[in-house]
Amino acid sequence: MKQEKKITWKIGGESGQGQRLAGLALGRVCLSSGLFCFVYSEFSSRLRGGLATNQVSISDKPVEAISKKINVLFALSQSTLDHCQKNMADNSLIFYDDNKVKEITNNKGEIKYIPLPLKELTDKVNLDSSVYNFLILGISVALLNLDIKLLKKEIEKGLNGNGKELIQNNKEAAQIGWDYANENLNIKQFSYKNEINLKSNKRIISTGNEAVAKGAVSANCGFYSSYPMTPSSSILHILAKQAKENKMIVVHPEDEISAINMAIGASWSGARAMTGTSGGGFALMSEGLNLSAMSETPLVVVDSQRPGPSTGMATWTEQGDLQYLAKVGYGDFPRIILSPANPEESFYFTTLAFNLADIYQVPVFILLDKYVSESHKTILDFNLNKVKINRGKIFTNEQLAKIKDYKRYAFSKDGVSPRSFPGQKNGIFLANGNEHDEHGFSIDGFSSDLRKKQMEKRHAKLKNILNDLPKPEMFGSDNSLITLVGWGSVKGPVLEALKELNQKGNKVNYIHVPAPFPIDPKSLSGLLNKAKKIVVIENNYKGQMADLMQETLGMKFENRLNKYNGQQFFPEEIIKEVKNYEK
Amino acid sequence: MKNSFITSNKSIWCPGCSNFNIQAALVSAFSELKLEPHRIGMFFDIGCTGNGCVSYNTYGFHGLHGRVVPLATGAKLANDKLTAICMAGDGGAYGEGLNHLVEAARNNFDITLIVSNNRLYSLTTGQASPTSEKGTETKSTPYGVNKIGMNPLSIALSADAGFVARGYAYEIKHLSEIFKQAIKHKGFSLIDVIQPCITLDKKNTKEWYSKKIYKLDKNWPSKDKNKALIKVQEWGDKIPIGIFFEGK
Fold first, then answer.
1. Structure confidence by residue, pLDDT tens digits, A297-353
2. Closest CA to B78 of A424, A297, A421
3. Domain residue spans in chain B?
4. Global pTM value
5. Which residue of B has its CA nearest to A444?
6. A269–B64 C-beta distance less than 8 A
7. CA nearest A253 in B: which residue?
8. Which of A466, A549, B144, B243 is deepest in the core (most CB within 10 A)?
């Protein structure tokens, strides 16, 4: 097999210099060139100034995660250079704005520093610094030996709606960069000329949030209410923009409390309903979660995690909400947490979440994080034929007409009783956040038998829920020395790390848990029993899933690999850390 | 076929509670408007009023304290054919949930909010509410409420509510007429209903109110918002009831 050719490109400068636009455009050029990529950004919670970077790992094979080591850096500011040069790979290049970067330190010889006369190049043609990003893309496309025409197409697409002049200016800048590179820089080491494969059509670039939005539309979600909160907001933006064509009601209400109560009301009315937020916003929703559970009103809740507690770090990533979502509630009730690791899973798990919510009449979480929500990844286009809609037990008008005394909360073996919707003549019922009888009418402790039976009814759902959850999966050989166990977004970096770790023999495998709550002891312990040395890898401080597994499985998980600095794991870090466990 | 809007469940209200009057006025409005029970969605807050949920034979949702307005809003947005009625107390509507009231008014969501305003938290055995008068001694304010009682109607008007009215639980016919107009109104309506608590309130009693309450004149200019803004502030020897404002 031909060896993978992977390089990591990065651009950095102040917020507002268009790094994100540039990284995405580069990703799209790679896509149309038949290459794979992963586009990742780091930035502060500010609109201008500071430091903002965008990083793209490019390969001729699928890329599961962003790499840490940078092969080509474009530094638009001194702080970019200072911040990034420690992560440069061997034989890498740093291009820098010769007007902004004055001090080059720490040159150990393996990095080549190349000044770029950005001001001079743009002044000549009466352009300004706003086109630097696309000028740099012109240079980049030349270095990668990709087609400048593809870049110009992406500029037209990416800036569509921004006026002809702006598009023309940026295309001109791209050409200037391309010409400059071809005339002045004779660099061949990053050429993808021989790796281009145009057969690979059906691929797209998507973020996790875009995939969730698309999944919601495909699942016939009729109602989305969300108060903006990074990193979940782009779901709201996408769905709001498409609301008319999708016939979806999309509301940005006064707060998260309203958002979740509206979604519950809409679901009660018969729509498939979803709300979205991050951990802090969910804190305001937690009472609403209880209402959804007690009234058995299906609900899908997106939580895109960022580092907490409190406001934490708004634009960074962590897997810190798992225990919170698994346990939040005053009183016991079942809920489901699905945790997509990438855009593909974000799409399919969203469609699954709506089905599970309807089938079991419980709240279902889609637990993302900033890394999954906002990173772009090359993936196979979503297969809409795979989407099956199952609305669970719902009585038709005919069925209701035959029933003398409809009981919305009728006791049943599987704990699920058929729903009716307002407008159905014989389906009148009271949904109730108070404990209730089979009709939904409030009861209290003087009817303690009814209370007991309703609790048991709601919990009876768990058995079938466990069967319906996506199963834990093992990657790599059964017979490995070390078994990593993780959930959500650690999957990508781990899979990327496994490529290198297992180049010489089967050293490490990985068990991925796609639904971290409730944990299915049967399917998980089956896999864990095969493991020799288990290391639970999580993007949080304590090891939240490790603790949940300990509770559920009665096993001890002492080896824990945790990262909680606001960044996700990089494959290189996993490779390094796992070597410590080999001893 | 005659529609029955009432279940056979026993109520948990105190015998003689003026909430029964409000219920009678509302059911009469449903009936006169020829509404069908299965096309009505009633949303109940927490408190004495909300506990009336078991009495109505319509689609219903007994939600969380203060959150009845967004609950109804979501339901109405998802099913436009629904007649959405919210039943709340002064604690839920003006305390815990005031932000939602203001937003629903600004958005002009097509829901009717009926507030049983007894100026007390009654079900929790009598603490101060947002509409309690300054100085009122309650269990939570043994030395008297130290802030001004809120005027919910002027807040609703300032938030551009399209229908703002005050009713009185002991004027059932008048109240029922207000309910009818409010339900017919396309957009957000607030009806603040003075509902003396017969068990806990020894001061603001039926006798106390009945001397002060008077109905707005038949020719009251209910399209004039500025006049409404002034009129809703009349609260003393005389307390007006009726539809202060109905916009488009």
1. 999 999 999 999 999 999 999 999 999 999 999 999 999 999 999 999 999 999 999
2. A421
3. 19-246
4. 0.97
5. B12
6. no
7. B103
8. A549
